[in-house]
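cron nightly-structures :: item 1 of 1
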Amino acid sequence: MSIIEDIKDTFRQPNNTLKQLILINVVVFVVLIVARLVLTLTVGPHLYNLLMSYIALPSYPASLLVRPWTLITYFFTHEGFLHILFNMLNLYWFGQLIREYLGDKRLLSLYILGGLAGGVLFVLFFNFIPYFADRALGASMIGASACVLAIVVAAATLLPNFTFSLILIGPVKIKYIALFLVILSMSGAVGDNAGGNIAHLGGALIGWVFIKQLQRGSDMGRPIHATFGFFGNLLKRKPKLKVTHRGGGGFSRRSTNGTSSAAAASYPGKPSQHEIDRILDKISSSGYESLSKEEKQKLFQASQKD
């Protein structure tokens, strides 16, 4: 099977958000490597720099106004190998936790909201904080670090006592890993990569707020879900319905595959928000392992049907 077919299969599979996010980042990274090589050897580096200016997030508001899409494209873009490597490893490790306990939709919401928050904070700091004023013009940012740190902090807020086994260190609770990454970003906020580290802090803040709001019964990702649902419905082809006569004298609508629309719409009732909040609180205080089999099943049902 070709690489193209492998990529298509990744996007055809349902509930596969984590792999899809990683794949998008990797594909963009590889395309930029090829583009940089080809353009530099043929017409010079200026054309590659022009290309990057259309996908990197500018700090200058006037540039952002004419290229608003960069508020999204920047967090799928990497140039350094170590940059994308560490981002994708952290996305995979911590994304697995969010995906397992909260579902694919909330993983996607955290990624996008973290990136947006990081980008907005980057622009605000470079235009309203005097220390960065002389750097604002011409500064730009790429990388998924803000998105990844949002997921890291969200996982640590939800499951603070969950442990990872780190090489040469051993088991470490993820709340300490998240704390270390946040402090590292704070220390770099006045360094050479000040803009990137400021964005990290924006992502971290969103990750913490997202889980706290979710535990209070409010899902910050609903606008993201609604947006993707809207465009997803536009792309889906609605099945043709046929009216068939029933033996009892009535009529029912049937899709072209012969399944009754009433039967297709029925599904088991999902857990109430109160039950989910209670389960999330229990995870935060005692860890996922403390849940009963029934509670784990309810959490899984909620993640699939939200």
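cron nightly-structures :: done
The chain has two domains: 3-224, 273-305.
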